[in-house]
Specification:
The structure is a single chain. The chain contains one helix and no strands. The chain has about 60 residues and is mainly α. The protein starts with a helix and ends with a helix.
C-alpha cells in the first residue's frame, strides 16, 4: 500500500507541476492577447475618426 501511495503522490505532484506550467503559459498568452486587443481598439478609434472626417468631406455636415 505504501508503494501505491508513493506512486499516486508522484503522479499528482507531476500533474500539479504540469498544470502550473499550463497556467503560466496561459496567463502570458492572455496578457499578449489583451495588449493586442488594446492595440486594435486604438486602430478602430483612429479609423472611425478618419471615416467620420471623410464622410463630412463627401456628404457635408448634416
Amino acid at each position: 500500500m505504501d508503494s501505491l501511495h508513493t506512486t499516486e503522490s508522484a503522479y499528482w505532484k507531476a500533474e500539479a507541476e504540469r498544470l502550473a506550467g499550463d497556467n503560466a503559459r496561459l496567463q502570458a498568452e492572455n496578457a499578449e492577447l489583451r495588449a493586442r486587443v488594446s492595440e486594435l481598439e486604438g486602430q478602430i478609434g483612429a479609423l472611425t475618426e478618419k471615416v467620420t472626417t471623410l464622410a463630412k468631406l463627401v456628404f457635408g455636415t448634416s
